[in-house]
Design a protein that fits this description.
The chain is built from twelve helices and twelve strands. It is 46% helix and 18% strand. Strand 5 (97-103), helix 4 (113-127) and strand 6 (132-138) form a beta-alpha-beta unit. By secondary structure, it is an alpha/beta fold. The protein has a seven-stranded parallel sheet with strand order 3-2-1-4-5-6-10, with helices on both faces. A three-stranded mixed sheet has the order 7-9-11. Bound molecules: NADP nicotinamide-adenine-dinucleotide phosphate. NADP nicotinamide-adenine-dinucleotide phosphate binds at residues 7, 9-13, 34-35, 38, 49-52, 70-74, 82, 101, 103, 138, 140-141, 172. Residues 7, 9-13, 34-35, 38, 49-52, 70-74, 82, 101, 103, 138, 140-141, 172 line the site of NADP nicotinamide-adenine-dinucleotide phosphate.
């Protein structure tokens, strides 16, 4: 069994490699990176893997059984073509199975929807590729909120346009565990799994921070327009539009989805009380 993981230096790619190394020897796992030097220290062989260069994947996929394709970061139209480079190289090289990290959410209705739609297109491309496949639709990462905690404390509040909408969050570590299982076990072939923990509102998220860290943050709902303006000033047009679109999607309940995590991972997703308790214990 030989498994290749793309975007190996990224936070999800490197976490998946660490989980795979708990079950395989280091010569059975290869990491690909756009800039290989950025992936040094992962304990596995690293080769070039720029999504714009199909030839990188043609070379890296010889004698490989499973490819884990981590979704890219470029604008939606570009991503579809980049992902096709990986899928076509896998097919050409005789790879047996491809595992793809997709995303939950609605394909229309918010400024984040074009990204969701591009993920759905890659799902279709994979399903029509003749490869065996497994698709994970990732919940939203909770880690960015944790990273923002100091800013929330400074402001005394969490403000966004999600209102009372529930969101299925997850963590990269929980995703990595599930993807390792999905890559290693053929019983998952042909399945599309939603990978997330229990859905929570922004008020519940605020309460989790307050309980774990002894805070008294409040949750402040903003209008979609006001939040978009605020995020664009802070993050620029591209990212500000995407982030405000995500929270508009939470408001519309398009991220409130039933999780299949246990079926994919072979165990339950961490519950949010335990996750925040562990975080507070580490601080
Ligand atoms: P990350 O830590 O930012 O890593 C992104 C990875 O994508 C990096 O390794 C980056 O390589 C690589 N990449 C970007 N463009 C590439 C290209 N043209 N060719 C090869 N590699 C390329 O993100 P992450 O936490 O690992 O997340 C993985 C993916 O999940 C992201 O790429 C994105 O599609 C998606 N995502 C999901 C959520 C969520 O909430 N579920 C949030 C954000 C992103 P470089 O270091 O060379 O740039």
């Amino acid at each position: 069994m030989k498994i290749v993981v793309t975007a190996a230096n990224g936070q999800l790619g490197s976490a998946i490699i660490q989980k795979l190394l708990q079950e395989l020897s280091s010569n059975q796992v290869v990491g690909l990176a756009r800039t290989p030097a950025k992936a040094e220290g992962l304990g596995v062989e690293i080769q070039p893997g720029d999504y714009n260069e199909k030839s990188h994947f043609d070379a890296a996929f010889r004698d490989v059984d499973v490819v884990i394709l981590i979704s890219g970061m470029d604008p939606p139209d570009m991503r579809i073509i980049q992902h096709r480079n990986v899928i076509n190289a896998a097919r050409d090289a005789g790879v047996k199975k491809i595992v793809y990290t997709s995303i939950i959410g609605a394909i229309s209705g918010t400024t984040f929807s074009p990204i969701v739609a591009s993920n759905r297109q890659t799902e279709k491309d994979i399903k029509s590729s003749s490869l065996q496949w497994v698709i994970g639709r990732n919940g939203l990462y909770i880690e960015p909120d944790v990273k923002y905690l100091d800013s929330y404390i400074e402001a005394g509040r969490i403000s966004n346009c999600a209102a009372d909408g529930k969101c299925a969050y997850t963590t990269r570590s929980e995703l990595a565990h599930a993807y390792a299982q999905m890559a290693l076990n053929d019983k998952h072939n042909g399945k599309t799994y939603v990978l997330a923990g229990e859905s929570i509102t922004q008020q519940q998220l605020t309460d989790l921070f307050n309980t774990a860290f002894g805070l008294s943050l409040m949750y402040e709902p903003l209008s979609v327009e006001a939040y978009k303006q605020e995020r664009t000033v802070e993050l620029g047009e591209f990212l500000g539009t995407i982030i405000s679109g995500i929270y508009a999607g939470i408001r519309d309940c398009s991220f409130d989805v039933q999780s299949d995590y246990e079926a994919a991972a072979g165990r339950k997703h961490i519950n949010w009380n335990d996750y925040f308790k562990l975080l507070a214990a580490k601080k």
